[in-house]
Amino acid sequence: EPEVTQTPSHQVTQMGQEVILRCVPISNHLYFYWYRQILGQKVEFLVSFYNNEISEKSEIFDDQFSVERPDGSNFTLKIRSTKLEDSAMYFCASRVATGASYEQYFGPGTRLTVT
Amino acid sequence: DQQVKQNSPSLSVQEGRISILNCDYTNSMFDYFLWYKKYPAEGPTFLISISSIKDKNEDGRFTVFLNKSAKHLSLHIVPSQPGDSAVYFCAASVYNQGGKLIFGQGTELSVKP
Q: Do B98 and A105 touch (CB under 8 A)?
């Protein structure tokens, strides 16, 4: 069964450093998302991406964040200058674009620890 | 932002009995609702969904009920199995907002043998 994959599984970085989190969505999916979950809190939407552009972003997704689909398979989230409060699990998700199916399929997540 | 609420942080059920997980929402624009199951250190796994034009959807042991007038949905698991023990998240979506999901806080289900 196709699945969303994410690398790395765990990233430790120092405050102020740039990190890039990588995702390979399911191959026939056309909508891509990033979410995060701070320990003990709910899963929060960050950004959605469709047709090579951001379709929506949350208040969390400020100028320090960017997303890119550099080729036909990868989808990346970059944090330019990490802060302590960026420590969280980051989940990538994807879904097909057609019909009334809104199900999003999530990757296993990347645990980001900012020290 | 409390658009989707799961008021029970935990639920304990005996194996073989019914588990009922509840979710309330405030935004009447939501038109699609989903339930996800999550194990520690893993991503959410899609379980079942329902469109706002329906009031029930069933898939095996899982049934989701939607009461639009009460802005309430529930997930029924029958019969419950120990492997169902996980955190269950309710999520809602608005079609014209690119499909972003708004999640509830989650309910931790424990199914005891």
A: no
> Could you give the CA distance from residue A51 to residue A22 in angstroms, rounded to a whole number?
18
Strand-pair partners of A78: A20, A66
A34: burial class by Cβ within 10 Å (0-12, 13-18, 19+)? buried
Length of chain A (residues) = 115
DSSP state of A38: -
pLDDT digits (tens, 9 = 90+) for A8-22: 999 999 999 999 999
Chain A hits for B49, Cβ within 8 Å? 101-103
The residues, any chain, with a CB within 8 Å of residue A96's CB and separated by 6 or more, are A28, A29, A30, A31
CA–CA separation, B39 vs B30, rounded Å? Answer: 26
CB contact under 8 A, B42 and A103: no
Q: For residue B72, count CB atoms less than 10 angstroms from its CB and return exposed for 0-12, middle for 13-18, buried for 19 or more.
A: middle
B100 token code pair = 């972003």
Percentage of chain A modeled with pLDDT above 90: 78
Q: Would you say the C-alpha torsion B35, A54, A62, A82 has a positive or negative sign?
A: positive
